[in-house]
Amino acid sequence: MKKRSMKLKALVALTVPVFGMSPVLAEDTVLGDVVVYTASGRAQSIADVQAAVQVVGERDLQAYTGTSVTEALKLAVGVDARPNGANSTVTMRGLSSSATLLLVDGQRRTSKYGSRNLNLFAVEDVERIEIVRGPMSALYGADASGGVVNVITRKPALGSGPGGRVASTWGRSAHGQRETAITGASVEYGGDVSAHRVSVEHRDRGLFRYDRDSPTADLNRIDERYYAYDGYARVGSDHRINWRIEHLDQNDTGPGLLAAAPPSRPVAVPFDAYERERRDFVQLGYQGLVAGGVLDVDLSRGHSDAKTTRAYPTIETTDFVQHQATARYTRSWGAHTLVLGAGSSRDELDVSLNSRNATRVNDHLLLQDEWVIAGDWRALLGVRHDRFDDFGSTTNPRLSVSWQPGPWSVRLGYGEAFRAPSVLEQYSRFVRGGRSLIVGNPDLKPEQNRSWEIAFGYAGARLRAELVAYDSRVSDLITTVRKPRESGDPAAITVRSVYTNVSDARVRGAELSLAWQLDARWFLQGGWEYIDARDASSDERLRDRSRQIARLGVRYDAGRLSADVQARYHFDYYNSDPNDRSTDAPAFNSNFGATDLKLSYRVTEALTAAIGVDNVFNTRAPSNYGSATEPAARFAYVSGRYVF
């Protein structure tokens, strides 16, 4: 019986990320023993993780408005998350957004243009978000050069019986703009052998204009619907099968204006702009005890069919099909815990603005060993080999050694990562804003990242703190470079940008994170980061990055009443004004930030009501920040949540 109990505990540990168990498992500490999966490919206490990790849990999510998943990363240290209406960008440690791998339950998702967009996921479906900073290609392969963001969805529990929840948010920005109505609901049933959950969400948001007389909008209208079904079944005592089905229907619209191009078009012409996408995703998984270890297998298929008017009058289309198959086997031998993995993915991408269709096949093998050396000393050694049918092969190692005497810890780590150029960066040719031409480069080489980091931490019953310093050397950095017009360019074009491998870049920085339970009612979390990102040859700062970012969250929980104040401020953000179309547009520094407030009251055990204001001081992003970021102005809202 004891042996059977140990087996079941091993299976439960494996399925923490799959079946949505609470990330806070220990009740004898105020902060709790947070369990994460993403950092090592298996469930383990955050105190034992050999990486810089942060978890946005259930209570953290409740502090936000709920307008997008991206907004839940506002207090994530080392992450610059920008929700821009229908789209979003997420960068980590001063690298590009393409160097951040976005996952949902450990799997990638398709999106228009072959890109990634965290805004196009249902907030209602999120249980928690796991964030791992630093190069993770040794575990996750391409696109994990800066780190990984893994969204863990809600799952039904065996034996829970019937249940569900309904949540709604209504609000608007200053001057009656950006009228918002968001409603999400779910029903679930947990039986003795199987469990099921169905969820829906509708997101409806109005236009926003800084200049209310402008013929175009800074943020377009959002009309998005999300549907998901999760289920799993226990097969015997040691095996489980799970499945997930998703559907997204995006139909975002707004007023467009086609720039004048004399003599054929002497004046600007208005048109109806839109972003449309239908995305389907199906996943089948297996978890079980096999030969003394735990086997985890996932098979999935994703498909996006999208149309946009970004280059009107040309309608740009995307047809993106992605197949993924992964298997991991975890087993402990004495002081060693080994993870063996293999998998294959196939991307079939047809984007109308590209000069050719593209199919990319990526096969991989990985091996990871977590070793308890002696006493307080631990080590992690990992390596992954990837083979691309269009780029050849690459092998990326990861090494970390830690010393954990009591609540203190010291960790030294090294990792290598790579980012293959996207199909868009290779073969595209498209116009933005009527005057900017972006051109792909089929001769691009993959980016390579070699990174060191050292971390000092403390994890007590009421206080957790960590200071991390890192040094990343990036070779063949992929970016757009402004170049003069060429004879074949459209007449209205004033700026020509070409995707290029520039000389090496060096990104150095420091991250300080803090979580402090002051007493039974007050909780404080915050972070500060410093980023020095430079071109290694010219020593010039890389653009579109802040030198420093400071974050602070104050939480008050007293019985039925709770309050959250959250602030994030950028210092020395370095970029040029996007409205300056010259090839030598100067970059300059700017400072900006926003503070949010939310008050919640638990009316009954099942019903909670809240009011809040985002961007309390009605600040506006500076001119060099580019497109408008949510919330673009002060946004007031009310919300309610009913759990049954």
TrEMBL record:
<dbReference type="InterPro" id="IPR012910">
    <property type="entry name" value="Plug_dom"/>
</dbReference>
<comment type="similarity">
    <text>Belongs to the TonB-dependent receptor family.</text>
</comment>
<dbReference type="Pfam" id="PF00593">
    <property type="entry name" value="TonB_dep_Rec_b-barrel"/>
</dbReference>
<feature type="signal peptide">
    <location>
        <begin position="1"/>
        <end position="26"/>
    </location>
</feature>
<dbReference type="InterPro" id="IPR036942">
    <property type="entry name" value="Beta-barrel_TonB_sf"/>
</dbReference>
<dbReference type="Pfam" id="PF07715">
    <property type="entry name" value="Plug"/>
</dbReference>
<keyword id="KW-0812">Transmembrane</keyword>
<keyword id="KW-0998">Cell outer membrane</keyword>
<feature type="domain" description="TonB-dependent receptor-like beta-barrel">
    <location>
        <begin position="206"/>
        <end position="616"/>
    </location>
</feature>
<dbReference type="GO" id="GO:0044718">
    <property type="term" value="P:siderophore transmembrane transport"/>
</dbReference>
<feature type="domain" description="TonB-dependent receptor plug">
    <location>
        <begin position="47"/>
        <end position="148"/>
    </location>
</feature>
<keyword id="KW-0732">Signal</keyword>
<keyword id="KW-0813">Transport</keyword>
<dbReference type="InterPro" id="IPR000531">
    <property type="entry name" value="Beta-barrel_TonB"/>
</dbReference>
<keyword id="KW-0675">Receptor</keyword>
<protein>
    <recommendedName>
        <fullName>TonB-dependent receptor</fullName>
    </recommendedName>
</protein>
<dbReference type="InterPro" id="IPR039426">
    <property type="entry name" value="TonB-dep_rcpt-like"/>
</dbReference>
<dbReference type="InterPro" id="IPR037066">
    <property type="entry name" value="Plug_dom_sf"/>
</dbReference>
<keyword id="KW-1134">Transmembrane beta strand</keyword>
<keyword id="KW-0472">Membrane</keyword>
<keyword id="KW-0798">TonB box</keyword>
<dbReference type="GO" id="GO:0015344">
    <property type="term" value="F:siderophore uptake transmembrane transporter activity"/>
</dbReference>
<dbReference type="GO" id="GO:0009279">
    <property type="term" value="C:cell outer membrane"/>
</dbReference>
